[in-house]
Specification:
Blueprint (H helix, E strand, L loop, with lengths): L1 H4 L6 H35 L2 H50 L2 H7 L1 H43 L1 H48 L1 H6 L3 H26 L2 H25 L6 H41 L18 E8 L8 E8 L4 E5 L6 H8 L7 E6 L2 E2 L5 H6 L1 E4 L10 H6 L6 H10 L3 H6 L17 H14 L4 E5 L7 H14 L4 E5 L3 H4 L4 E6 L2 E6 L1 H7 L1 H14 L1
Parallel strand pairs: 3-8, 3-9, 6-7, 7-8
Antiparallel strand pairs: 1-2, 1-4, 4-5, 9-10
Helix pairs in contact: 2-3, 2-5, 2-10, 3-5, 5-6, 5-10, 6-8, 6-9, 6-10, 9-10, 14-16, 19-20
The structure holds adenosine-5'-diphosphate and magnesium ion (MG).
Adenosine-5'-diphosphate (ADP) binds next to α11.
């Protein structure tokens, strides 16, 4: 909680100012019943109408002053809490951006999103409510109780007991209610997820005539969300009636005990009126305190979740360079595991000269994409050395390392923006560069035919493009930055053989000197590579040129025969 509280520090003066204004407002509110008593005790029996008007006017002035102070203080509180939340969200966002992929995996994307949205909201609410009610309510309760004890200890005891009971009742009810609300929130998240899956998978669902099943699935989670909301509502339904009941019982007791004492000549009757005023004031303030406590407990839980991210240690530091065995890019006895359980890459060694092409072939799950991720230092190799540009990636600043790369990953998304912006990708590239990249990526022909060419807006999932068109746009994006190393992970999977061959030729022609890493299921895409790795369960089963592998690697020959045979 400390780190999040620290965000208040720059606004300490404003907070202190707000607290003082709130304090003044509470004093004004506490004085009201005393004036009322004065009117009833002194002015009314004396039938002093001008005095009644004077005191009444003063009461109005006090009430007005209190309201004005509260408005001013609430505005200051709102300003501070919004400002705090804004800077908290800003820092959280930039920290999330810098998390390593391993940390991202650990926190999970959806939890990061909910920390950035839900949790910052709860922290905002906490700061807001504590500043608004955190001073006023305790002041009113403490001041009110002190005054009533001075005036009539017997009635004050009733007051105290009812206040305590009210606080306990609210506290208990909400404490039981909050877990139900957490469950209801999770159920709502599921509903949202299903809607999202449906919206994005709408073609498959239609194609497989799955609407009926989908509707059933939606109804199930929808019903579940309703049931959980209902459970939370059932628990919370007790809160208001309980506090009303306590308030009314307290009022009855005050009147009863007061009447007995008045009858016995131990108290003036007007005291009862004063007491009833204080009673209502204190009771409302007690509810306020309980609400502030609930806000704090929710806010503190969220603050902890936010701090988990803010304080997550930097886990990919710059290290002294390990020995590299030359060449532009390569690995030396590299092993890696995502979860630390079983190895996803084992003992990988290869090297590549500048301008050469590396091909990677292997069944799904054999570690091809993982190998590319290690080159970019998205993850750190557990053992061994990875180098790019002749330098250990762990000793290269991340920006420098990644600026060397142009990458197409599998399942990459497009921006909901123009074709130009999708290729330039917030790098502010000139239209000439974008056009040139599109031409090399074999994308220019279809871009020209789009209704507004480069300025055509794309759907976020690229639903208004074919799979192959999307893929070529992504290649253009990777090429547009003029990278030294180009990584294409399955970038040909949706291209026909002729387009894929044209793309390979164009890259070689337009990007002389680029070092290529091509991951593909197709032998045809790899056959010209200087070196091909055949991966199997995270190990290099064989490596060499197309010709060497045809001779020495049964598996490669088998795949080649299957594919080329079909082709011929
Ligand atoms: P390929 O690209 O060859 O299909 P990958 O490199 O994507 O294979 O995956 C290799 C192995 O690592 C698979 O067993 C996969 O389940 C696992 N894996 C991939 N990404 C992650 C991740 N983020 N967390 C945990 N395991 C992963
Ligand atoms: Mg892959």
């Amino acid at each position: 909680m400390g780190t999040v509280l620290g965000y208040l520090r720059p606004h300490a003066r404003r907070v202190a100012c707000g607290v003082t204004v709130k304090f003044t407002a509470a004093l004004l509110e506490l004085a009201l019943p005393l004036l009322l008593e004065y009117i009833i005790r002194v002015c009314v029996p004396a039938r002093d109408l001008p005095a009644i008007w004077r005191c009444g006017g003063m009461m109005a002035a006090l009430a007005f002053g209190a309201a004005a102070c509260n408005i001013i203080a609430n505005r200051m509180a709102a300003w501070v809490s919004m400002e705090v939340t804004r800077s908290l969200r800003r820092d959280l966002y930039s920290r999330v951006e810098q998390l390593s992929c391993a940390q991202m995996d650990r926190f999970s994307t959806s939890s990061l999103v909910s920390r950035l949205t839900n949790d910052t909201y709860h922290v905002h609410q906490m700061f807001d409510k504590v500043q608004r009610g955190g001073i006023r309510a305790p002041m009113l309760v403490a001041g009110g109780l002190a005054l009533t004890f001075l005036l009539e200890p017997a009635l004050a005891v009733i007051q105290l007991a009812v206040s305590l009971l009210t606080f306990l009742a609210i506290w208990q009810v909400t404490r039981r209610g909050i877990p139900h609300y957490a469950k209801a929130q999770a159920a709502t998240d599921t509903v949202v997820r299903i809607i999202r899956e449906n919206a994005s998978g709408v073609r498959v669902i239609k194609a497989l005539a799955g609407q009926g099943r989908e509707r059933q699935r939606f109804q199930t989670v929808n019903e579940d969300a309703r049931r959980k909301e209902e459970a939370a509502g059932c628990v919370m339904a007790a809160a208001n009636p309980l506090t009303d009941f306590l308030l009314n019982t307290g009022l009855v007791l005050v009147v009863l005990v007061g009447a007995v004492r008045v009858a016995a000549g131990e108290m003036y009757s007007h005291r009862i009126v004063t007491f009833l005023s204080y009673f209502a004031l204190i009771q409302t303030a007690t509810l306020g305190i309980a609400k502030v406590f609930i806000r704090i407990s929710k806010g503190a839980a969220s603050a902890r979740r936010i701090e988990e991210i803010l304080l997550a240690p930097e886990d990919q530091l710059l290290c002294p360079a390990g020995p590299v065995s030359g060449g532009e890019l390569g690995m030396e006895r590299v092993s890696f595991s995502y979860l630390g359980v079983e190895k996803d890459l084992t003992d990988v060694t290869f090297a590549l000269e500048k301008g050469e092409t590396l091909g990677i072939l292997g069944p799904t799950g054999s570690g091809k994409s993982t190998l590319a991720a290690l080159l970019l230092r998205l993850y750190d190799a557990g053992e061994g050395v990875v180098w790019v540009g002749g330098r250990d990636v762990k000793s290269t600043p991340k920006e420098e390392l990644r600026s060397r790369f142009g990458v197409v990953f599998q399942n990459e998304a497009l921006l909901n923006d123009s074709v130009y912006e999708n290729i330039s990708f917030l790098r502010g590239l000139s239209r000439e560069d974008v056009t040139a990249a599109a031409k090399t990526a074999q994308a220019w022909e279809f871009i020209q035919r789009l209704p507004e060419g480069l300025d055509t807006r794309l759907d976020i999932r690229g639903a208004n493009l074919s799979g192959g068109q999307r893929q070529r746009l992504l290649v253009a994006r990777a090429l547009a930055g003029r990278p030294a190393v180009l990584v294409l992970d399955g970038a040909d999977s949706a291209l026909d053989y002729r387009t894929a061959a044209a793309l390979r030729r164009a890259i070689r022609r337009d990007c002389p000197g680029v070092t290529l890493v091509v991951i593909s299921e197709r032998v045809a895409s790899l056959r010209d590579a200087n070196r091909i790795l055949v991966l199997e369960e995270g190990r290099i089963a064989a490596q060499g040129t197309h010709g060497e592998l045809l001779e020495n690697c049964v598996r490669y020959r088998h795949i080649a025969e299957l594919q080329e045979g079909v082709l011929l």
